[in-house]
Specification:
This protein is about 70% helix and about 0% strand. It has about 350 residues and is mainly alpha-helical. Helix 9 runs antiparallel to helix 15. The longest helix is centred in the last third of the chain and has 29 residues.
Length: about 350
C-alpha cells in the first residue's frame, strides 16, 4: 500500500527540470524548494517549484495528461494540513527529545520517503563534486538550520507563534531579492506588501505592550529560521539552476546531506535518550515522513497539474491551520493581536507575490 501511494505521488512530479528541493522550510516552514527560482517565486517554496515546471513544458504537459487518481483539491488540503500540523509535531516531539534529535529524526524519516520514491522512479543521486558542494550549502540553509531553529524556538514559544513566524518567509525573501537579485525589480505594490507584512509581525508580537508575555529568544530563533529559507532559495537559484538533474534526484541528495550534517552535530550537543516516549516519537515520524518527505512529492505534483498560482495558495493556509491546531489540541492561549497580525502578515505576503503588469495591458 505504501509503495502504491509513493508511486502515485512520484508520478505527479516533473522529472527533467533541475531542482534543489523548501521545504520547508522549511522549510516553511517545512518543505524545501527546487533550484530554479523565479524572482517572485523566490519567496515561497510552492511558488519556487513553479519554475521547474516552466523549465520543462513538455514534461509538465505529459504529466498533466496522466491525471493522478487523487484529485488535486484533496492533495492541496493534505499539504495545507500537514504543513500546518508540522509546528504541532515539533512541539510534541520536543516534549520527549532534544531539539537536535527531533530535527535528526525528521530528516531521517523524510529522507527515507524520498529514497523510496527514487527507488520507485529508478532515479540516481546527482553526480559531480561541484553539485554536491552546492547541495551541502542548500541542505544547511533550507533544512538543517531552519529545522533546528524552529525546534529550539518551540521550547519557549507556542506552536501557533512559530507557524505565524514561518509565514514571514515571503517577506524576508522579497527584501533579500531586491538586494541580491538585480533582475528582480521592486514595484510599489510589492514594496507596500513588504511594509504591511512587517507591520503584521509587530502586531503579532504586541510591540505596543513591549513584547510582554513573549519569549524574545524563542521568537528571534523562529524569525531567523524563516529568514534562512529565502537565503537558501537565492543561493540555489544562483548555483544549482541548469544542472540537468531531476527534481527528485537533487531533492534526495539535499535531504541526505542535511541528515548527515545533523548526524554529526547531534551527538556533540546531546546525549542518547534514556527512554523513547511513544507519542513524541510518532510526532517526529509524522513530521519527517509526511511533513517533509511526502509533502515534497505532493508539492511538485500540484505545481505540475494546476500551476504555481493555485498551488502557492497553500502557503496562506499553513499558519491558519497551525494556529487552530495549537489552540484546539495543545490548549495554547491566543490573544486578539495574534490572529489579527497573522492576517496582516498574510496580506503583505500576498502583495509581495504580485506580478508587475505589462505596460500594454
Amino acid at each position: 500500500m505504501c509503495y502504491r501511494i509513493i508511486r502515485s505521488m512520484v508520478a505527479c512530479m516533473t522529472s527533467t527540470a533541475p531542482s534543489s528541493s523548501r521545504v520547508s522550510p522549511a522549510a516553511t516552514a517545512t518543505a524545501t524548494p527546487p533550484a530554479t527560482v523565479t524572482p517572485t517565486a523566490a519567496v515561497t517554496p510552492t511558488a519556487a517549484a513553479a519554475s521547474t515546471a516552466k523549465a520543462a513544458p513538455t514534461a509538465a504537459a505529459t504529466e498533466r495528461r496522466r491525471r493522478p487518481a487523487v484529485d488535486w483539491r484533496l492533495r492541496f488540503a493534505f499539504l495545507s494540513v500537514v504543513w500546518g500540523f508540522s509546528f504541532l509535531f515539533i512541539k510534541v516531539g520536543t516534549d520527549g527529545y532534544a531539539p537536535f534529535q527531533v530535527t535528526l529524526g525528521r530528516l531521517v524519516f523524510g529522507t527515507a520517503v524520498l529514497m523510496a520514491a527514487m527507488a520507485v522512479k529508478r532515479e540516481r543521486l546527482p553526480g559531480g563534486a561541484r553539485v554536491w558542494g552546492h547541495l551541502a550549502v542548500a541542505a544547511l540553509l533550507l533544512n538543517a538550520l531552519p529545522f533546528s531553529l524552529f525546534a529550539y524556538a518551540e521550547l519557549t514559544i507556542p506552536s501557533t507563534l512559530a507557524g505565524i513566524c514561518n509565514a514571514t518567509s515571503p517577506l524576508w525573501g522579497m527584501a533579500l531579492s531586491l538586494v541580491a537579485l538585480s533582475e528582480d525589480r521592486p514595484t510599489r505594490i510589492r514594496v507596500a506588501g513588504l511594509g504591511l507584512g512587517f507591520l503584521g509581525v509587530l502586531t503579532v508580537l504586541g510591540v505596543w505592550q513591549g513584547f510582554d508575555g513573549l519569549n524574545a529568544s524563542g521568537t528571534a530563533l523562529a524569525l531567523l529560521a524563516s529568514l534562512s529559507y529565502p537565503v537558501g532559495w537565492i543561493y540555489v537559484r544562483r548555483t544549482l539552476a541548469g544542472t540537468g538533474h531531476s527534481n527528485l534526484s537533487l531533492t534526495g541528495g539535499q535531504l541526505l546531506l542535511a541528515t548527515a550534517q545533523l548526524a554529526v552535530v547531534t551527538p556533540l550537543f546531546t546525549s542518547l535518550p534514556t527512554s523513547f516516549p511513544v507519542l513524541p516519537l510518532l510526532a517526529v515520524a509524522a513530521l519527517g515522513a509526511l511533513g517533509t518527505g511526502l509533502a515534497m512529492l505532493v508539492q511538485y505534483g500540484l505545481v505540475a497539474e494546476v500551476g504555481p498560482t493555485t498551488a502557492q495558495m497553500v502557503t496562506y493556509f499553513t499558519p491558519v491551520i497551525a494556529t487552530a491546531a495549537g489552540v484546539a489540541l495543545l490548549g495554547e492561549s491566543l490573544t486578539w493581536s495574534t490572529p489579527v497580525g497573522a492576517v496582516i502578515v498574510l496580506a503583505g505576503a500576498a502583495l509581495t507575490q504580485a506580478k508587475a503588469r505589462s505596460r500594454g495591458a
